[in-house]
Amino acid sequence: MSGRQHAVACLLVGLVLWGPRVEASTGRAPVDQMQVYRKGLPNLSILSLAQDPQGYLWIGTAEGLVRFDGVRFRVFDRATTPELRSNAVSALAVDSRGTLWIGTLRGLSRYAEGRFSLLGADHDLAPDRIRQLAVDCEGQLWVLVGNRLVRYDGPGFVAYTEEEHGLPAKVDGLLVDRAGGLWLTSSQGLGRLEGDRFVAVPTDGIQLDSWSQLVEDASGRLWLNAEGDLWIYEDGRFQPTHLLADLLAPPAESLLAGTDGSLWLGTMRGLIRVHGGRAELFTSADSLPSDWISSLFEDRDKALWIGATTGGLARWPAASSEKPSPRILSVVVEEAIADEQPRRLGSPLVLPPGTRRVEIHYTAIRFDRPEDVGFRYRLEGNDESWVDVGGRLATYTNLAPGPYRFFVEAYDRKAGRRARPPPGATLDLELRPALHQTWWFYTSLLVLGVVLFRGFHRIRIYPLQRRGRRLLELKKELEVKNAELLGRKAELRRLTFVISHDLRNPLFTIQGFLGLLDLDLSRQDALRTFGDLAHIRFALTRMEELLEELRVFTDLGSSHFALDEIVNLDTLVRSALHRHRDQVERRGVKVYVGKLGVVRGHREHLANLLRALLDNAFKFLDRVEQPRIEVSARRDSSQVTCSIRDNGIGIDPRYHEKVFQLFDQLIPETEGHGVGLAMAQRIVELHGGQIRIESSALGEGSTFAFSLPLHP
């Protein structure tokens, strides 16, 4: 290069570095309109920047995460937010659902729906430095942890390795392009993921290092910062632009593609803007917070946010011809404090009884002239009209219990309410009543009063009521006893009649045959004498049987006996059948006996019960060609029901009740005195059971079934 050419080159460099600014050429407002923020930041080293869907600017510093609404900086650090593993926030990203992903020097956290959470060992992520975060078009999060690439798939993290996916040993940077492709840079080269495999892209000998960065501009072209220059990807290869050669620019710490087609590079010597085929350098002499620029971000208003390593944060608005008119991005209820205790926002926000003071913090996110934002709010259920204020706090004291709804709106003071404001924010509240403020407290008092009155009333009248109930019980007992006495009287009258009648017949027989016996003895007729004696003996036997049956029957009504013996019915049936062994053998009666089991009762009376029912069954088998008797039982949880079935002449349904009456015989010429079935019914009833007859017509046999309580 000749001396003249060298002088011209130096002149051009001087014009670029120190020449007068033509601000319209940068697409930015004049540099003297740049806003610099230092007060309120926990540290002046800005490491990362992002903006969420509500419009908040999130700032990652060396000593905490900061949320900025244009007026207030709210700091989240390890002291207030334990879900952050480190105060140094090295990377930020916001996905399509509005989740803020936070990378620190010791791991990854996230902020969603007003809550922070930590992603650590439970999600297979080691506590290492998060260098870079990126979200693809499918909403997947890509994380550069140290020099390793991982992908978050919801339940956990999927690691991409050199062995399995062909990645370089160390990955230094990543980029998600508009098509969703993932590009990776490393000192070993450059490439992209196709499926789950890394495919290298030729760089034609470009020497990449850990500072090399890749970015996609507004037109979809890829730019690579390497070897102190910018390279553009065209026709399948990277070509040099030589735009930075004259600036002698150091490696860029941050690289940003603006919406106007500009490229911005943050370096240790200042901010470089590349646009229209030329590069320009801006330094602290141009109102930048510092020469060392570590992070860059362009917000929704096309303003450029510049984070410095030691100087804080700056906002460079877009040029007036390119930026939209100042607007309020959104209105947000940020926090509710009840009696100096922060409350988690919910729907509704439930406040405990006795809350005296409620503070509601709200904001309107706006970075251009935030001092021009005005507010008005109203608490439905308390405020009759809107309250106009300039602050961002609403305070209420001594609210009555009940539900409320808080409304807040924001507007531009200079434009007035004629300008269309953004949608306001609402918050539902419910102040729980104290015990003495609830309706059920007064209801309880009323109920208690009624109970006390009724209790006092019962104390006064209870003895009278108890005496009246006792008199009613005695009256009912007396009525039952009277009914029993009337029944016994009728039974006794019938019994007296039957005794006088049935006992008189044998006596007449004896008296008659005694007269015949005298006559036959006087004639010395031995044969007739023996006949007379036989008739007298039969009459005496019949009288004895009748007296015995009457004794047993009357004992059932006059004696009190225990029903707590354990009685084996199978044994009693065998004993009762033994009395009829001659008839069984002579007539060929088929007898079938099933398992009856054990019950509680009076052994002697139960034996008489089975004996009477079996005697009745055998009595009417004389006219049957193939006589048969079946004894069976069925059980349930509380009783056993025994059945004695025969195929005799049967009983007409009209007489099912009459057969149980004392001394009633449907067929007078049969054996017996009409006492057996009446006695059987009395025994069953005394044991707390029931007896019934199953016989549909004459000639079809009959079944006597009775129920008794089971032995437990």
3D architecture notes:
With 712 residues, the chain is of the alpha+beta class. 25% of the residues lie in helices and 33% in strands. Strand 22 and strand 23 (263-267) form a beta hairpin. Helix 5 (526-558) runs parallel beside helix 9 and helix 6 (569-578) crosses helix 8. The protein is elongated and about 180 Å long. The protein starts with a helix and ends with a strand. Mean pLDDT is 82; it is low at 1-25.
Number of domains: 5
Remind me, CATH topology of the largest domain? Methylamine Dehydrogenase, Chain H
CATH architecture of the largest domain: 7 Propeller
Uncertain parts: 1-25
Distance between the termini: 123 Å
**Backbone CA Rg:** 56 Å
Derived from helix and strand composition plus strand pairing, the structural class reads alpha+beta
The tally of strands reads 44
* Overall pLDDT: 82
How does the major sheet shape up? Answer: 5 strands, mixed
Q: How helical, in percent, are the residues?
A: 25-40%
CATH level 4 superfamily of the largest domain: YVTN repeat-like/Quinoprotein amine dehydrogenase
Silhouette: elongated
Discrete helix count? 9
Helix and strand topology:
Layout: H1 3-18, E1 35-37, E2 46-51, E3 57-61, E4 64-68, E5 73-76, E6 89-94, E7 100-104, E8 107-112, E9 115-119, E10 130-135, E11 141-145, E12 148-152, E13 157-160, H2 162-165, E14 173-176, E15 182-186, E16 189-194, E17 197-201, E18 213-216, E19 222-226, E20 229-234, E21 237-240, E22 254-257, E23 263-267, E24 270-275, E25 278-282, E26 293-298, E27 304-308, E28 313-316, E29 330-338, E30 341-343, E31 349-351, E32 357-365, E33 373-380, E34 387-389, E35 393-397, E36 402-412, E37 425-431, H3 439-502, H4 504-522, H5 526-558, E38 565-568, H6 569-578, H7 581-587, E39 590-593, E40 598-601, H8 603-619, E41 628-635, E42 639-646, H9 676-686, E43 691-694, E44 702-709
Parallel strand pairs: 31-37, 39-41
Antiparallel strand pairs: 1-28, 2-3, 3-4, 4-5, 6-7, 7-8, 8-9, 10-11, 11-12, 12-13, 14-15, 15-16, 16-17, 18-19, 19-20, 20-21, 22-23, 23-24, 24-25, 26-27, 27-28, 29-30, 29-32, 32-35, 33-34, 33-36, 36-37, 38-40, 41-42, 42-44, 43-44
Helix pairs in contact: 4-5, 5-9, 6-8, 8-9
